Amino acid sequence: MPKNLPRFTEESHGSADERARFSQWMECWALHKALADVKPDTDSDNSPESGIFDLPIATFDALPEAGEIRLLSHEITGETPRPIYVAVIHHSEDEYLIIPFGRFPDPATQGEIWTGVEDHRFDLACTWNARILPSGILEKSWNVGQVDNILRGKLHAHFKSLARGLNFEVSLLKDIGPPLHHPEDPRWDYLAEETDLLKHLDQVCLDYYAEEEVDIGGEVFNFLSEFANIRKAASDAEDRRIQVFLYPGSRAMFKAAVESSHPAFQAGTDLFGETSLLTWDPQDQKQAVGEWILEGDTLPHQGALFHVMDTKTMQWIGSGEIVDQGRVASLSEGKWSDFSAYKANTSPLLLVIFNKIAR
Asked: What confidence tens digit (pLDDT) does each residue in 304-345 have?
């Protein structure tokens, strides 16, 4: 973590609304951690340690239609500390896009969204933890409910915004959690716990694809698994850093100033960048999807443009816009072939931010 980065406090959130949402979630997290410290009654078959729930005894239901809520069997999830419910959002050929429901009523991050359904088991959708499941896996589940077309459309729109690194629709903002920036934020631990819940399911799916020699959608499945892991990765890792240069002018001014030659760039001493997402676009695998979290005393303006430079080749390889009140750089243009070499280590990349909105 950069030495100049301030320590995380509840005041680290920018707006009063974000602080209120974070405070609500922290109450749930504190209660969860307190209960986790209580020693369970291991002599009981229904103790948390036993991994046994009141699951249906009946045979599995027929393959689902989009809009169903499914309870996943332990045959595919392994033993988990709570039942795993998922919403089936989309069905294409032999595969299903599913979004798990969370443990708390309040969303932790912008990747989670409140559903507004009456059944409290389904209060919260963890869109960031979405998966693609083949029918041969999802068939080991039970139909326990339904999401209507309005809610299914809402969850699908949320998923597409996350997967493509786009701004959220205005109608979604009131139902999602506060942004996640600081590497010491306790929500990283929560995301790690939630990711671990589906590790066994991920392995079961990969084994299924290998045994059945099925390749349909496999790349999309891998993308979603990686998408979830990147979102929860510890952001103080050196190889997730990115250099940042804040230019106090427009893109046109910068171009004129350097007159087609590259200046001797130096990353700012009070502005730091961490890679939260860098992968290929599932809807267009030739395009890159990228997002960088900015931290520092001086943040760029909302709407400022930026370009990405590969400092090894001194070539411009992408561009985008500053969003989320200057705290996030979202890539909008860039070929995955130019970014793929830096998937594991983004430190050779440089963000040049034109800190003036004039285009």
From this structure: 899 998 888 878 899 999 988 888 999 999 999 999 888 878
User: What are the φ/ψ torsions at residue 24 (nearest 5 degrees)?
Assistant: -60, -45
163 pLDDT above the threshold of 80:
no
CA separation, residue 193 to residues 138, 187, 188 (Å): 22, 10, 9
Cβ(200)–Cβ(186) below 8 Å: no
Q: Which of 76, 212, 191 is CA-nearest to residue 133? A: 76
Beta-carbon-side half-sphere exposure of residue 153 (alpha carbons within 13 Å): 5
Whole-structure pTM value: 0.59
Q: How confident is the model at residue 123 (pLDDT cuts 50, 70, 90)?
A: very high
Per-residue pLDDT, 321: 92
Each residue of 261-270: b (16+ CB within 10 Å) or e?
Answer: eeeeeeeeee
The CA distances from residue 187 to 15, 37, 99, in Å, are: 18, 18, 19
- Go through the domains of the chain in sequence order and give each one's CATH number: 10-232 (2.30.30.110), 238-354 (no CATH)
Arithmetic mean of pLDDT over the chain: 79
Burial (CB < 10 A; 0-12, 13-18, 19+), residue 79, is exposed
Which pairing describes strands 349-354 and 241-247: parallel, antiparallel, or unpaired? parallel
- Cα–Cα distances in Å, from 75 out to 20, 50, 79, 136, 200? 40, 15, 9, 12, 10
Cα–Cα distance, 339 to 287 (Å, whole number): 9
Integer Cα distance of 293 and 310 in angstroms: 18
Fill in the DSSP letter of residue 259. Answer: T
pLDDT of res. 115? 95
DSSP one-letter string for 269-306? SSEEEEEEEEEEETTEEEEEEEEEEEEESSPPPTT-EE
What stretch of H or E contains 320?
A: strand 315-323
Q: Where are the alpha helices (DSSP H) in the chain?
A: 16-36, 74-77, 135-138, 149-164, 187-197, 199-212, 218-232, 251-258, 336-339
Residue 60 to residue 69: CA distance in whole angstroms: 13
The helix/strand/coil state of 70 is strand
